[in-house]
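During the second year of the project, the team shifted from modelling isolated chains to modelling whole assemblies. The rationale, set out in the original proposal, was that interfaces cannot be judged from single-chain predictions alone. As a representative example for this report, we include one of the complexes processed in the last quarter. Its constituent sequences, exactly as entered into the pipeline, are reproduced here:
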Amino acid sequence: MAAPMPLHKFRQLIKEHGCHSEQKSSSTHFYIYTSAGKFVSSYAVKKGNSVLQCYVSEFLKAVKG
Amino acid sequence: MLTQEAILQTATTRFSVDDDSYVTQSCLFPRVLGTGDTEAEALADFTFVLSESYEELVKENVKGYNKKGRPAKHGVNVHMQVPAEIKEFIDENAARLQISQGDFVSFLVSNYHASQSKKQCVMWVDANAYRSMISQTVNNAIVTGSFGKGRATSTTAAPVKAVATVAAA
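Output from the structure prediction step:
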């Protein structure tokens, strides 16, 4: 089992790719957008303050096109 | 245009050993994932996140999803011969879900991967149960003082036999 990525590291990764994340009110999920406002992918913070690897890999796939 | 219903109908749930979690995803809109400790939890999570993010699909800024037909996926063409009933099955279900034949084949492949991952999950759980059983047996053997005497560490019955031996001595 791979260790989940700490939230601060994932947010840093999002920044490095020129994106930002937003949380809708009353939602447990975050939505990632490019600086131009295009939707990239979503993620959830569930286990402690970390993000599951499946969200990380889907973000990287989506951002790389 | 891709409907929310079609995305839900093509969602598959796999077990991710990496995450020790169930993951629900649709090949039609792979950008959103649902996760959970059970298949039902992952599907409920996916349904929720899809309902929130579906509007992103129909916004102008997600190229292709707001037009008729499927978005460009930069896929490859496949030419192959299959039995007529297989072709009929693909045609009927693609039409029912209002998706392309290629999307339906992608869904079938996702389903295959999902079922394989669940088999892996069962094996993974069994391996953990086995490790736990061995560990328990060794602990019992240590507590009863039979560790390393004869075959006491190999079965749960052995420590009882070892205790009996000590008592007789």
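Residues 5-64 of chain A form one domain. The beta strands of chain A are 5-6, 19-23, 29-34, 39-44, 50-51.
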